[in-house]
Amino acid sequence: MLGTAPAYLLSWSAWRLLSTMLPSRLYHTVDDCVYSVYQSMVLFFFENYTGVEMYLVIFPEGTRYNPELQKVISDSQAFAVKEGLAVLKHVFQQPRMKASHVAIETMKEHLDAVYDITIAYEGKLTAAGQRHPAPTMPEFLCKECPRVHIHFNRLDMREIPVEPVFFRRWLHERFEIKDKLLTTFYDSEDPEKKCRFPGESQKSPLSLTKTLPSLLILGGLTLPMLLTESGRKLYLSTWLYGTLIGWAWVSLSP
């Protein structure tokens, strides 16, 4: 995987640059092809050299849902009305299906199921019952979000349509189901249903043994760098220029 990633990134970057003046449809066609080849190589590596089971995680929503971005939500709901789709409240209306479709189509011979995962955060409601944005890392560390609820739904590969038109509709139906789950989780007046998902639950407490090793490793790598002048300069430069490059990338990327 590490060996193919640089080649994939280089190929994708070159095509991104060369296709700037070309129609977006042509760019997406080649981009899907390159991504498909990369996924095939990664799958081949894991199956034939490591024997490690692999999970490919895809976020079809494209961007994180934020209840404070009312214009984005209104535009998304207006799109649903225009297309004759169900208007959703807690997720976006138009999940991006290309990456999901390419991944499933490429690996369908090696998969027996796809897992539909829905995540909700406890403690993210105002006194008026309005939903807050997803918690940030500092909020997690300050225990403003005491629990993360994760709902798993196993989907047999035979239930997933192959044709892109039917796959798009199927994916939107999955998001309708997600919206119903989240509506019950956040808005239900029944205390037995509020802030919990249906089905059998399994608690996974975060113990000190799971977090302390990471803290020691991160502290052991960071502290020596901060104790020397050259290390501090490197740390500051990486933080500063990495942030600026990240902002520039987000601003320029469509």
From TrEMBL:
Gene Ontology BP annotations: phosphatidylinositol acyl-chain remodeling; phospholipid biosynthetic process
Annotated InterPro entries: Acyltransf_C (IPR032098)
Family annotation (CDD domains): LPLAT_LCLAT1-like
UniProt family annotation: Belongs to the 1-acyl-sn-glycerol-3-phosphate acyltransferase family.
MF-aspect GO terms: acyltransferase activity
Record-annotated membrane-spanning stretches: none
Protein name: 1-acyl-sn-glycerol-3-phosphate acyltransferase epsilon-like
Species this chain originates from: Cyprinus carpio (Common carp)
Annotated PANTHER family: 1-ACYL-SN-GLYCEROL-3-PHOSPHATE ACYLTRANSFERASE EPSILON, 1-ACYLGLYCEROL-3-PHOSPHATE ACYLTRANSFERASE-RELATED
Keyword Transferase among UniProt keywords: yes
Chain ranges of the Acyltransferase C-terminal domain: 141-209
Domain of life: Eukaryota
Signal sequence coordinates: 1-20
Keywords: Acyltransferase, Lipid biosynthesis, Lipid metabolism, Phospholipid biosynthesis, Phospholipid metabolism, Signal, Transferase
A GO-annotated cellular component: endoplasmic reticulum
